Amino acid sequence: MISDHEWDLLTDLKEILSLFAEATTELGGSKYVTNSLHVRMLIEIINTLTTNPSENYTNNDEQEDAFEDEGNFNISEPVLTFGLLDDIKSKLYANLKKYYPTLTTETLIPSILDPRFKSLDFAPDEQKIKTEQYLHKLFEKEKGGQKETSNNSHISSGSKPKKKKSLMERLTKDNIVAFNEINEYLQLPEIPLDSNPLLWWN
Where is this region: Disordered (predicted)? Predict the structure, then answer.
């Protein structure tokens, strides 16, 4: 017969494992954006499993599997539940950190481009800064590529040369307001989680 302590353990385990089930369901969708969601979900699950990361996690290939078969058990005997929940959480945590050891700039790009998660408040400050810098770099590279394509298009189409400006026109300064599009985007407030980021960008 299952003891009260075992029922309590099963209840706690159900709550923990339901996170994995929910993540699997959400990330298995095909009618909404998921690429920017998986990192955020992964971090949330890891934080939930954290008991004492400095002791529980060692990043090496010899880390035991969380569901490794440790032998036959006699189900008629009561299970020693004291500390078992933390032990299971520690193994799950260690295995997640084994397969997802660190956040990389590349994996955070989809999240920073999603107006629901662009603040990257779930990532370390240093990683957030690196991701923002990398986004600037990608943006400038894309702008440069578009400009080059546009110039090549004008050359190939044999467009007429531009009309020469008069001396007074040359002295007139263009009224252009310089701004950084990436910084402007990052300063905008995030949108609700149930919003569609694709509609926001359109």
Answer: 141-166
Domain residue limits, the chain: 1-101, 104-155+180-202
pTM of the complete model: 0.66
DSSP string covering 95-143 = HHHHHS-S--HHHHHHHHTSTTTTT-TTS-HHHHHHHHHHHHHHHHHHH
Q: What is the pLDDT of residues 170-190, one digit of tens each?
A: 777 655 555 588 999 999 999
- Token code pair at residue 75: 């189900």
CA-to-CA separations, 3 to 11, 79, 88, 172, in angstroms, rounded: 12, 9, 19, 86
DSSP string, 38-79: HHHHHHHHHHHH-S-HHHH---STTPPPTT-------TTSPP
Q: Could you give the 3-state DSSP secondary structure of residue 148?
A: helix
Q: What count of residues does the chain have?
A: 202
pLDDT, tens digit, 9 for 90 and up, residues 121-137: 999 999 999 999 999 99
